[in-house]
Write a structure and sequence with these properties.
Layout lengths: L10 E7 L3 H16 L5 E5 L7 H4 L8 H6 L7 H7 L1 E2 L5 E3 L14 H14 L2 E5 L6 H6 L5 E5 L4 H16 L6
Parallel strand pairs: 1-5, 1-6, 2-4, 2-5
Antiparallel strand pairs: 3-4
């Protein structure tokens, strides 16, 4: 069954990787899959327009999804609009995929729309896991303080560890407490 409006207090976990976007996607999918056994429904949402993310790992492709929502006026990003872009997979997870369309990267500047999408995702499921990619861009900077938890995936090389430390510091500057 498609996610329907729940209490506006669904938890949202963001996943960001220090260097490799596919690792953030992989971790986001796995966190959601583990949680799905105890919580349903669970939504996995891409947050980086124009790139392949968690949705692609789950086999979802679209020319709409996240990009369609980020193009809407904020007032039009309601429950129905977000539900219409969700895809259910054989894994039992719902996804909000981004299109594999590099030109959609310009939608990263649509921060108010990203906040509105996040607010609706909170209302649609008890748990949403966001694939934040690898950068603290405008969207991440705006939505990070509204997340319940951010997982930072550090990679095993020195540069990956240095980048993870920088990401943690940046997230702290945005108001997230390290734990």
């Amino acid at each position: 069954a498609q996610p329907t409006e729940a209490a506006p207090t669904g938890a949202v976990i963001g996943v960001i990787a220090s260097r490799t976007p596919a690792l953030a996607s992989w971790l986001a999918v796995n966190v959601a899959a583990v949680a799905r056994d105890r919580i349903a429904p669970v939504i996995v949402a891409d947050t980086v327009p124009g790139t392949l993310g968690a949705g692609a790992l789950l086999g979802h492709s679209t020319q709409a999804g996240l990009g369609s929502l980020l193009r809407l006026p904020v007032a039009d990003i309601g429950r129905e609009a977000v539900q219409a872009e969700l895809q259910e997979g054989s894994s039992g997870l719902w996804t909000l995929p981004a299109a594999n369309a590099p030109r959609e990267a310009e939608l990263k500047a649509h921060t108010l729309q990203a906040e509105a999408v996040l607010a609706q995702l909170r209302r649609l499921a008890p748990l949403t896991v966001l694939d934040l990619g690898t950068d603290c861009d405008l969207n991440v900077a705006r939505i990070a303080p509204r997340l319940d938890l951010v997982l930072v995936m550090a990679e095993d090389r020195r540069a990956g560890a240095m980048r993870a430390t920088a990401l943690i510091d940046t997230l702290g500057e945005l108001g997230l407490e390290p734990s």
